[in-house]
Amino acid sequence: MKAVFTFALMTLRMLFRRRTLWGILLVILLALAGIASVPSFDVSNQGRFVLDFGLFGIELGALLLALGLAASLYPRDRETRTLMPLIAVPLSRGQYLMGRFLGAAIVQAAALIVTCLGLMLILILHGLHIPADLLPATLLILVEGWFLLSTVFFFSFFTSPPLNWPLTTMLFIVSQMSVAEFAGLVPSAPGLMRSLRILLPHADVFHIKDPIAHGFQIEPVYFLIAVFYGVCYSAFMLSLALAVFRSRDLK
Amino acid sequence: MRRNSLFLTVFAVPLLLTSCFTDYDVAEVAPQEFLDSESNSGQTADHSHADGADCEECAEETGHTVDAAMEADQAGGPSGHSHGSAERNHGTQWFFNQPWAAPFIWGKLLRDGIVFLVMAAGIFFATGWRRKK
Amino acid sequence: MVFDGSIMADIHPLQVIELGKRFPGKRGLGTVPAVSGVTFRVQQGEIVGFIGHNGAGKTTSIKCILGLLKPSAGSIALWNKKPQDRSVRKRIGYIPENPDYDDTFSPLEYLTMFASMRNLAGNRKSWMSLLERVGLRGWETTCIRQYSKGMKQRMSLALALQSAPDLLVMDEPTGGLDPIARKEFRDIIIEENNRGASVFLSSHILSEVETICHRAVILAGGKLVSEGSMECLLGGKSMYRVVTVSSEERTELTVPEAELQSTIDSLRQKGLPVLKVELALKSLEDVFLSATGGERK
Q1: Quick check: C84 contacting B, CB < 8 Å?
Q2: Looking at this predicted complex, what is its ipTM?
Q3: Which domains are seen in chain C, by residue range?
Q4: Where in chain B are the domains?
Q5: Which residues of B touch C82 (CB under 8 A)?
Q6: Closest CA–CA distance from residue C34 to any residue of chain B (Å)
Q7: Between chains, do A85 and C159 touch, taking CB under 8 Å as contact?
Q8: Where are chain A's structural domains?
Q9: Which stretches does DSSP call E strand in chain C?
Q10: pLDDT, tens digit, for every residue of C143-197?
Q11: DSSP state of A89
């Protein structure tokens, strides 16, 4: 475990030293500021509008961060041969994957917390109420972000970054759709589409921006269950990623 | 090749078993009492009636009638007729048909999570064993 | 092939038996052999040179030994254990071909992190002195982004030596280095060997292999074509070279030991000067070209 944590720390340092993270963070914060400056039809609904779209912006930010941080980690390591000295001696393949994932997950978490604080600041500046469930909602988005991160790692072991981006984005979009909506995409094959959809993750588990924007209370046990579901699905994706990585020759 | 097929089948079956019967579309799997629930709504969701016709169901449950709704509409509301806020109705069912508002699927979420965790562990140990062989 | 423990009564740092590796062919059709039927061993305290033309299968073999590639056939044992065994990997130091590292770190950071990952005892002072030993004094905290190729190779040597390994596996460690740097590398390899480490190194610089290696393994076209101690490969002490001048031209005569005295007498009788008499050893290059037929297979 020490090797995994050390390598995670190494990954964390590397990601902070690269410019990708800062660029993505700047984009997210600018987008949030932009959302807040758009006037809504009804001043009394301004708070709901900012919260709803603000949380949606944070969710998109989670996707951007997952792709920006992780899509090129393994391909770059292979191309520059930095992978060889790592895998040959100090680390096993599982330790490499877990170290990279943990480091990227910590960076993603820090970035999303910063964006949540940014959203709070925007609400304060506009004189709007900050709901108590804003941080828990961000936590659920973070868990969704970790799931996306694990998906990006899975794709990165057998695709290039330019292919990883659209594949992960497609999965993100599909996971937002209901079974009926997805089956409706190809009406001539409802059974197949239905089977496909139920195998894919259900990201609506993580979406509580609607009740938060409208001032609904969410039961604490729901948060725990949703986090558990997200962590377990992420573990499943990581195990698939490791299975692919273990089967590959490092030429 | 046969061993790989067996391997895939063993892991696909539990995945299918959970998801096949775990439809997260709340509207499709919700029990009728959830859809009719007073704690969520004052009205049955998703019913329609022709303009001008009396709606006995509406009238029985809430005293709301189509005529009254049309009066409210003519009074200037863009939505036609209004309901009490924070209530489940045919306009807001999409809002309440989400996992956070449907406790009857929470158990399924937990079960699926455990299945994914078990499968993750299985894949991890199986691939590690194959590599060491 | 099942690894038969009875073949190896002794425990060698490295034993390779009938190693084979096939890669997918063009357009994914069929497979192409990169290495086949390679068998050799590295004994305790030996320095073994691994030589072959470009594409002979040296790097493929080394990667199979380290578990980076899965062999298609044969078996590999490191101290009688499989390459995937964790206890075995701790005893190995590895220098890859054309090494590269994350350019956002300095070598001191790399050494510190690697030490932590490998659970090695040591502190900043010990890593600084290790970097000084490999010739990176004054560059310890400089970002690798500013390093030249030679400096990265020195850094990879430092990482390989960090754990005082029992087996050093080096894939062209001195490729692209200047003669002074190559000599420094050779000296360090010999120091490590004197400490007790076994060394397995692949190189294109045959003079280097000839100088420091006890044995050599020659690969051509993925197959082992020759193997033996340096003495055996280079022909021993049976031939002599006599250098003289004839008609103002320098002439070299290669004669067997038994005829050496009579040759010298004959030259003197003819009034020809004997400028030099020396052992006529073959060079490793001669051996290599002879074993491979002078062609890339």
Answers
A1: yes
A2: 0.84
A3: 237-280 (3.30.1490)
A4: 1-30+97-133, 41-88
A5: 132
A6: 21
A7: yes
A8: 2-247
A9: 14-24, 31-42, 47-52, 73-77, 92-95, 167-171, 198-202, 215-220, 223-229, 239-246, 249-256, 274-279
A10: 998 999 899 999 999 999 999 999 999 999 988 788 888 999 999 999 999 999 9
A11: T
